UniProtKB/TrEMBL annotation:
<keyword id="KW-1133">Transmembrane helix</keyword>
<dbReference type="InterPro" id="IPR044516">
    <property type="entry name" value="UXS-like"/>
</dbReference>
<feature type="domain" description="NAD-dependent epimerase/dehydratase">
    <location>
        <begin position="3"/>
        <end position="240"/>
    </location>
</feature>
<keyword id="KW-0325">Glycoprotein</keyword>
<dbReference type="InterPro" id="IPR036291">
    <property type="entry name" value="NAD(P)-bd_dom_sf"/>
</dbReference>
<keyword id="KW-0812">Transmembrane</keyword>
<dbReference type="GO" id="GO:0048040">
    <property type="term" value="F:UDP-glucuronate decarboxylase activity"/>
</dbReference>
<dbReference type="GO" id="GO:0005737">
    <property type="term" value="C:cytoplasm"/>
</dbReference>
<keyword id="KW-0210">Decarboxylase</keyword>
<dbReference type="GO" id="GO:0070403">
    <property type="term" value="F:NAD+ binding"/>
</dbReference>
<keyword id="KW-0333">Golgi apparatus</keyword>
<keyword id="KW-0735">Signal-anchor</keyword>
<dbReference type="InterPro" id="IPR001509">
    <property type="entry name" value="Epimerase_deHydtase"/>
</dbReference>
<keyword id="KW-0472">Membrane</keyword>
<dbReference type="GO" id="GO:0033320">
    <property type="term" value="P:UDP-D-xylose biosynthetic process"/>
</dbReference>
<keyword id="KW-0456">Lyase</keyword>
<keyword id="KW-0520">NAD</keyword>
Length: 319
């Protein structure tokens, strides 16, 4: 099989490319590097089955550019609030025009298409945990809407192209995922706290830290995503780890895992910050026989180990 992975040099995308190559497939990754970096795929750059193209998918993709493919995984989109707030229009573009061009490649090739959507389509949810049937509670004009509404549009487009043009599309709704290769400065809670703890800086807890998130280790997410890609199911299917934690607890666990003496510091809660988030993964269990295997403390240890190693390598490079 030959797969196109948009956003393939991002955090999740780079792990997806690796997993596809390890399973014996060929991969063409397309990435604009707006929030990704070639160093994420440095380990597979010389693999004979791998190609990385630096392109903005919002300005169009074609089979003459990427070649024939059997699978399109559309992951391109800034995903950290810090990134999509810094690039609001690019975020809307990649979810609209970018999704359209990725869908066009799938149609031209007769390929399976999978959209990486998000738990953010549920907004600040009034139903807890979130099932796929829930339609969400999103502020359409708030600062986060570029991401939330962008993904809601991408879902609508994906579903419409399946109905109108018969493309074999599917939608996964990914809940907060963490692990190696997240950037220490990407603004998301786990890499931010780990970097702060390792630097001896205060851990910046937003609001009173009572808001919850459910954190999935990246290897589990990739396994669920690839299992879903091998079906013809339209989704949406939630992929996430139902182990729900308060942000304050996440901060405490990071302090413990790093052995840091950093204090916690309260910062302002961002606008429209969801108060709770936890996936109901019954559908993924039934359809894919999938559930996360890596418990939070274990995934956190692995992530801290990676951050330590990456910093060691950077220090050696500088010396
Ligand atoms: P990321 O920012 O690390 O990766 C996104 C990648 O897409 C980056 O490499 C970026 O450069 C690339 N990209 C963005 N716009 C592009 C464009 N116009 N053309 C080409 N490339 C473009 O984020 P991530 O965490 O790896 O997220 C990957 C996907 O998974 C995103 O679609 C995101 O919405 C979705 N998702 C992630 C999470 C999570 O917790 N990591 C949760 C829900 C959904
Ligand atoms: N958060 C925090 N401190 C930080 C970064 C994030 O307390 O330095 C909080 C954030 O306000 C939110 C939660 O952690 O309540 C998860 O934020 P993240 O940006 O990782 O993801 P999202 O809000 O998209 O779920």
């Amino acid at each position: 099989m030959r797969a196109l992975v948009t956003g393939g040099a991002g955090f999740v995308g780079s792990h997806v490319c690796e997993a596809l190559l390890a399973a014996g497939h060929e991969v063409v990754a397309v990435d604009s590097m707006i929030s990704g970096t070639p160093s994420n795929v440095a380990g597979i750059a010389r693999h004979p089955g791998f190609r990385l193209l630096r392109r903005d998918v919002s300005t169009g993709l074609s089979t003459s550019l990427v070649g024939e493919v059997d699978l399109v995984l559309h992951l391109a989109c800034p995903a950290s609030p810090a990134d999509y707030l810094a690039h609001p229009l690019e975020t809307l573009d990649v979810s609209s025009r970018g999704t359209r061009s990725a869908l066009d490649v799938a149609r031209a090739c007769g390929a399976r298409f999978v959209l990486a959507s998000t738990s953010e389509v549920y907004g600040d949810p009034l139903v807890h945990p979130q099932r796929e049937e829930y339609w969400g509670n999103v502020n359409p004009v708030g600062p986060r809407s570029v991401y939330d509404e962008g993904k809601r549009f991408a879902e609508a487009l994906t579903a419409a192209v399946r109905r109108a043009e018969g493309v074999n599309t599917g939608i996964v709704r990914i809940f907060n995922t963490y692990g190696p290769r997240m950037r220490g400065h990407d603004g998301r809670v786990v890499p931010t706290f780990v970097r702060q703890a390792l630097d001896g800086e205060p851990l910046t807890v937003a609001g009173d830290g009572s808001q919850t998130r459910s954190l999935c280790y990246v290897d589990d997410l990739v396994e669920g995503l690839l299992r879903f890609a091998s079906t013809d199911d339209p989704g949406p299917v939630n992929l996430g780890n139902p182990e729900e934690l308060t942000v304050r607890q996440i901060a405490r666990d990071v302090i413990e895992a790093t052995g840091s003496t950093s204090p916690l510091e309260q910062i302002d809660l961002p606008a429209d910050d969801p108060k709770v988030r936890c996936p109901d993964i019954s559908r993924a269990r039934e359809l894919l026989g999938w559930e996360p295997k890596v418990r939070w403390r274990e995934g956190l240890q692995r992530t801290v180990a990676w951050f330590r190693e990456a910093r060691g390598a950077a220090d050696e490079g500088a010396a």
